[in-house]
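Hi R.,

Quick one: here's the tRNA dimethylallyltransferase sequence you asked about.
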Amino acid sequence: MTQLSDPGKSTRPIAVIGPTGTGKSALALDIAERLGGEIVNADAMQQYRGMDIGTAKLPVDERRGIPHHQLDVLDIAETATVARYQQAAVADVEAIAGRGHVPVIVGGSMLYIQSLLDDWAFPATDPQVRARWEQRLAEVGVGALHAELATRDPAAAAAILATDGRRIVRALEVVELTGQPFAASAPRIGAPRWNAMIVGLDWDTAILDERLAARTDVMFEDGLVDEVRTLLECGLRDGVTAARALGYAQVIAALDAGGTAGQLAEAHELTFIGTRRYVRRQRSWFRRDHRVRWLDGAAAGLADEVIARWRDVS
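And here's the predicted structure, written out as tokens:
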């Protein structure tokens, strides 16, 4: 476990995690402002430049002058990977602590958070090998590539959806590079990195569903469809990761179908449904980590409570 603090001032990281729509960004801002901290984003899609409305990315003028890291670091055609994020975000956290500031990690992307807080070791990757398999995917289609995976690694093919081209490509890449089944090369989870304080934010399910519905309404009212149109002109379709983001994928499908009012209304509804489903997955994942101290998002004085707990153990 890496020690980031010195005897005079604690720089123990604080991680604010939890499902989408719970108010994590606002709480992280309050904490960072009070402690003189800097924020490290742990939302996969907020890494993309131009993907602002659909990811609920905090505008620069609402960040209170607090430095933010791992926002707007990828072009939409680039593939976001946990391994790239881990390397960059670990460096950010350690640099922040080195400046004597408190790193405040915030986000809801499960693998990103765990790879940052715990010492994960990832299997090999090779851009040329991956590019070749991605080209193969474009040529033969996802179904045929899934069948090819089944001949090379039946267990991986059984575990990966036949429609998930990204994971099929990754499995084939790993099998080729390691000569082992994909499962044998899964990330190895090591010890916690910094003994970070981890707080989880959640709401009553019925209330959170209302918040998610309102959040989806605001995104579409604020111009998500126009944002997607602009990004399509900039190469969004080439983004293996970005084009699959919640909201963006649904709007792309609606525009491809003609972009009528009815089709866009359906995209709106499907975005809400998909977000609600994703929240269920986030809850299931985060609840397995017994280090998380859960807080009710409806409670008052959340920043006070987090900071008091942090000071008690730092």
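The radius of gyration is 20 Å.

Cheers,
M.
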